[in-house]
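Q: My labmate handed me this sequence with no annotations at all. I'd like to see what the chain might look like in three dimensions before we decide whether it's worth expressing. Could you predict it?
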Amino acid sequence: MILVTGGAGFIGSHVVDALIDQGLEVRVLDSLLAANGDGVRWLNPRAEFLQGDLADPDVVVRALRGVTAVCHQASMVGLGLDMGDIAGYVRHNDLATAELLRQLAASDFRGRLVLASSMVVYGEGAYRCRVHGLVAPAPRAPDRLAAGEFELQCPACGEGVEPLAVEEAAPLDPRNVYAATKAHQEHLCFAFMRETGVPVTALRYHNVYGPRMPRDTPYSGVAAIFASSLAANRAPQVFEDGRQLRDFVHVRDVARANVLALTTDEPVPGAFNVASGRPRTVREMADALADAAGPGAPRPQITAQFRLGDVRHLFASAERAAAVLGFRAAVDFRAGMSELSGALTA
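A: Here is what I predict for the chain of 346 residues:
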């Protein structure tokens, strides 16, 4: 029996489907905190379902009975820019993870633990200065952003820098509340691995998109927000200059990465980028959605707006996941964006 926390949500429900398609027994624990009225709409009927709070020890004890592997997808998502939300993020992400780990240790669990982590733990991506080599630029200053100067600078000489694919060995540098809680989840889980010997695989998702994405909420991904705007015949509002680089990975590919981490012959402990391996600009993604919406759809608008919690460029090296986990993304970008457009207008 595999326990999937958050298994009724966007990514978790796809993971559950993929596991059941492999003939595996699945139990879902979900608080339905992020259901937004959907309830258990996406829950696979062949999964056993338990509604409850992962921070409640009695709930966790019941959820773990007979479990041989845990896929921890449950999380409060979004940037966490409002300090009024900080306690909620810490409770649902860190305290709940700590309670899960406490009960796993108490039950002498000897299976595998797969953690849904995120690219946000890196902060900014990797950069190279043509003079000083690899550098770590400082966070972008508000006055430069307000002046439309969005690119980063070398901290040594002030010249522009070239963005590079970030690798798993990059130092963690979370720059908002959500990112801090995801980094802490990793630290807790890897500490648990060191103490107990239970193998932990942290899958650092990059920009996940696809069917079942929540729409028009503070926690929607940018792809869902753009697609929802187009469905309402509104032009997507693209922040900054639209040239921010990201890696967009389809949710079915993400689900497949989880299945691999849970079912490989030998556990694959450590952190892995789950990404397409091909960076694209935010403007390119918005254009792909507008194209999918049809010839009469409004075109994206570049607004020059910005958020201090946003990073400029962040895209992944997918090589470690391919070499060690055997994972490569398969869903075509434009086909995936077309599918998302159709799902949000249905």
